[in-house]
Input
Amino acid sequence: MIVLWKSKHPIAAILAAKAEGETNTAIAKRLGLPRPAVNAAIWRAKNPPRPAGIIRTRVMSEEQFWALVDQRGPDECWPWTGALDAKGYGRLKKTMPDGSIMYGAHSSAVFYTTGIRTTKKNDTSVLHSCDQPSCCNPSHLRVGTHHENMLDMKNKGRAGNAWASGKRVRK
Output
């Protein structure tokens, strides 16, 4: 019998009640448990933990990467057609040929065209001349430092309240 945390109520009772169509709130009231505990028990039953050592990444070739870029004219932006983050940057989780994982589509575009890997460790960033976060056109991208990227952002008026009177302010 699997027991839910420190309570004496078995997960089997929660799952059986759920299978019969009982709502999570009703199950929680009947068993005297907080509803989040019932929700978590049901979620854990449906989503068992992954075995140790298994990482879900997809090996992506250069051809597969460029297939997800809308390659337009040489002076136009080439938007990433895959997933975007909340700020509009192209995001992907993939394994590079050397085994490392990259997340920014624009960083991958720079890597595939120049061979330069941008990382926080070596203080390199990819700067967009077009200011379009999803753009992967190599002619619109250049490698610079994080400081250069922040100055570029400030000079183009995209810094918001992070810069006040020319000085960086912590919030």
Q: What stands out?
A: The first strand starts at residue 58 and ends at 59.
